[in-house]
Amino acid sequence: MNPAPLVEPGPPLTAERVSRFSRQLMLPGFGELAQRRLAAARVLVVGAGGLGSALVPYLAGSGVGTIGIVDDDTVELSNLHRQVSHGVADVGRAKVDSLADTVASIDPECRVIRHRDRLTSANALEVLAGYDLVVDGSDNFPTRYLVNDAALLTGIPLVWGSILRFHGQVGVAWREHGPTYRDLFPVPPSPDEVLSCEQGGVLPSVCAWVGALMSTEVVKLVTGVGEPLLGRVTTIDALTGRSRELSYLAIADAPRITSLVDYERFCGLEPAPSTIETATDAAAAALAAASAPRGVTAADLLARVRGGEPVRLLDVREPAEAELRRIAGSELLPLGDLAAGDEPSAGAGTLVVYCEQDLRSRRAARLLLERGHDDVVFLVGGIDRFASVAADLVER
């Protein structure tokens, strides 16, 4: 059984608003009452990036009266290929300000509340207060679990979406009427298994596709029109043009959520604190943190090379692998030799370590950092990823 409309209707529409939404008002089962519900709705959107910049304009266009936007980031050039509500002139601006301007250009009567903050366990319940519904367009698992739990504790429905490469997912979580995000993903994936859009890439149209589906779920929940994705997830594959549906149920014996926690730690991004920490333990932890290797994406490395930035490329694969293909200008130093004490040649610029994927290069980068090399990164996805974006720089 579908839930009742989420929002009570606002005042009757003016003649101008009837004209503006005339093509929507004529939809079967919609009408003026549904439009008035949208006008009275208060919707919070978490994230003003790929998904937020795709779905927020459709929320404004459909007539949502109040849109809150949570994001602490600024627009970068690398955002523009997929975050199409921002433009070149917005580079360096707060994303919430840029997206608010986009909304104003669509419908000046739509109220935008700007939350230029990072959503955290400390502020989430306060930020969600007063909204009818929350939409999660974030790009990381800690925020997804945080938004799910905050929505559960405040009793409001959650529309969530995710994108990566050529794929996307959309679902609705609402404990009062069905399962939540935690019932679908009870345990977060290991950080080593997670690719971000920065590391894995994303097709721009996937953002638009998923964002449009998310905005549709908002309209359905607010107005009571249609069947929302409660207990169901829609997945899309842009390469095949296919979509499919996955059904799931609430976990009967799942732990009850009573408060918000440290979601970075919950997702394995921070070590759990020891009950007793000695000065030696603290020093060891500091050393481990200092020697944790950083990754550089294939696109970022390509930008550095094309821009003439000095970089040194260290291939830690075996000679037989390097004979098949290698990044031009690389120095070969197999991981076994490096572990035995051999050192790369001296030179200027960041030392970029790579292998076929990035398992060996992570270890190699850590070894080099522990030996005192202070400007070392590993290539995320290795030569396999780099060849997909810069084939002309790969020698065979």
Automatic annotation (TrEMBL):
<dbReference type="InterPro" id="IPR045886">
    <property type="entry name" value="ThiF/MoeB/HesA"/>
</dbReference>
<dbReference type="InterPro" id="IPR000594">
    <property type="entry name" value="ThiF_NAD_FAD-bd"/>
</dbReference>
<dbReference type="InterPro" id="IPR036873">
    <property type="entry name" value="Rhodanese-like_dom_sf"/>
</dbReference>
<dbReference type="InterPro" id="IPR035985">
    <property type="entry name" value="Ubiquitin-activating_enz"/>
</dbReference>
<feature type="domain" description="Rhodanese">
    <location>
        <begin position="307"/>
        <end position="395"/>
    </location>
</feature>
<dbReference type="Pfam" id="PF00581">
    <property type="entry name" value="Rhodanese"/>
</dbReference>
<keyword id="KW-0808">Transferase</keyword>
<dbReference type="Pfam" id="PF00899">
    <property type="entry name" value="ThiF"/>
</dbReference>
<dbReference type="InterPro" id="IPR001763">
    <property type="entry name" value="Rhodanese-like_dom"/>
</dbReference>
<keyword id="KW-0548">Nucleotidyltransferase</keyword>
<protein>
    <submittedName>
        <fullName>Adenylyltransferase/sulfurtransferase MoeZ</fullName>
    </submittedName>
</protein>
<dbReference type="GO" id="GO:0016779">
    <property type="term" value="F:nucleotidyltransferase activity"/>
</dbReference>
